[in-house]
Amino acid sequence: MMFKYQKQIDELLALGCHLPELIAPNNLRACRFAFSGEGHVNHVPQYMSNPKRMLQDMGKGKANMSLLALSCFTTVEKAEKFYVNLRKAFKNVQHSIGDSLSEGCLRDEDGRMTSVAPNGHFDFYEYEACDLNKTFQITQKLM
Amino acid sequence: MRRIEGYNIDYDFSSFRKIADLIYFEGPLLSHYVSSKGDDYLFYWVDRDNSDNRWLVLRVNLANLQKYIGKEATLRELIENPNDGYLYSVDVSNDVTYHNVRLVQPSALPDEYLPEEDSYYAFTPIPADDAEELMTYELTIPYKERTRFEEILHKIGFPVSALKKVVNSAAAF
Hints:
The complex is a heterodimer. Chain A has one domain (6-16, 29-50, 66-141). Helix content of chain A is 22%, strand content 22%. Chain A contains 4 helices and 6 strands. Chain A is globular. The model of chain B is unreliable at 169-173 (pLDDT under 50). Classes of the chains: A alpha+beta, B alpha+beta. The A-B interface holds A 45-46, 50-57, 61-62, 66-67, 70-71, 82, 85-93, 95-97, 117, 119 and B 18, 23-31, 43, 45-48, 50-53, 55, 75, 92-96, 111-116, 118-120, 122-124, 129-130.
């Protein structure tokens, strides 16, 4: 299956960037940060956002495939802990990553995920037909 | 975005090279860069609107940065005490163009641009691919240990005379 942002992935591959090792999510229950208000588009990778939160252009040696993935956590507790630490460092972080937590199920036909870090974080690379706006629901405000 | 008291200046950050993203979540939030002169800088994200992300850029010394990474100092302490006594505010557009560069005093920063008092490091740094060739190290040797240090350097074949030249020129500067 093609990834949702296959064209951009191919561009980064051409710059020498690599896709990390990916595995099937196997109906993993996951959560990710989202915006609760109207007028926000959720579940968009940073590289496809406008304005992108980037400091250098995706030139050779500066590319980072992670910018085309969606950050997720395996548990609400781990996501909340990460959010609290981010808020201590960046009081406006809700304007960039959202003010709420959304939860849903990641199916094999939705895409592929990286391995899970000790803090519960992983990157999720969506397949073409995936739309987490339809499967993820906002469950709580974080602020 | 909020207007910050300061002075508009021209400053070119294009020669800066990334050492590491110190805080990364769906893109950089706090990044360590080095200038072409070898000075260490932090890029600290503070705000965004529909067209730009805003960053504060400040020169730091490695010892203070290591204290922050080692959880001995807070990010707020770094931001409030930049090496130069001032910092830069810069807006970065969607096509990664830097503009609206302003010279700002830390005291002029709005509270929402400052980390919390207990902003100790709780993340994992992500080194840049070419970080190793850019990294510099600071080593402090107590004066009373200098002879022993020179003996160790001699044992491993390091030319102590070369080190003395560097130390002397640094002292003169």
